[in-house]
Design a protein that fits this description.
By secondary structure, the chain is mainly α. It has two domains: 67 residues, Winged helix-like DNA-binding domain superfamily/Winged helix DNA-binding domain (Arc Repressor Mutant, subunit A, Orthogonal Bundle), CATH 1.10.10; 34 residues, no CATH class. Helix content is 64%, strand content 12%. α2 crosses α3. The mean pLDDT is 86. One of its GO terms (biological process) is negative regulation of DNA-templated transcription. InterPro entries: BlaI_family (IPR005650), WH-like_DNA-bd_sf (IPR036388), WH_DNA-bd_sf (IPR036390).
Length: 127
């Protein structure tokens, strides 16, 4: 299943708050201070309808006149699909560049570093 960036944003919100209405998703989107561009409710509803057509969400109830939605696809499923495309798009398929970028950009505490070292050790023992 291929989703646009905005569809992925809506799915992220739904995973955090599900089940919820399109209006609730719109309010969550407006409350996100990382988003500088404000979107209309009708835009969010159109995206939710599109996600329903793609079988990513389904109607699971009603609250007055508002339809309540829940996800049909797990976050991990879409993350696995998005990973390779993200790496190709931003890092020309180079996993070293991707990993180096995140390590350099993120503030890592000692628990984070230990976790990464464990992942690398496990990966090395697989080979």
């Amino acid at each position: 299943m291929k989703l646009s960036d905005f569809e992925m944003d809506i799915m992220q919100l739904l995973w955090q708050q599900e089940p919820c209405t399109a209006s609730e998703l719109h309010q969550l989107l407006l409350a996100d201070e990382r988003k500088t561009k404000k979107v209309a409710y009708t835009t969010v509803k159109t995206i939710v309808d599109r996600l329903e057509q793609k079988n990513a969400v389904e109607r699971c109830g009603q609250q007055g006149r508002a339809i309540i939605y829940r996800s049909l696809v797990a976050q991990s499923t879409l993350s696995e699909q998005a990973g390779p495309n993200f790496m190709r798009r931003f890092f020309k398929g180079n996993s070293r560049s991707l990993i180096a970028h995140f390590i350099k950009q993120e503030e890592l505490n000692s628990d984070d570093i230990e976790f990464l070292q464990t992942l690398l050790k496990d990966k090395k023992s697989e080979k």
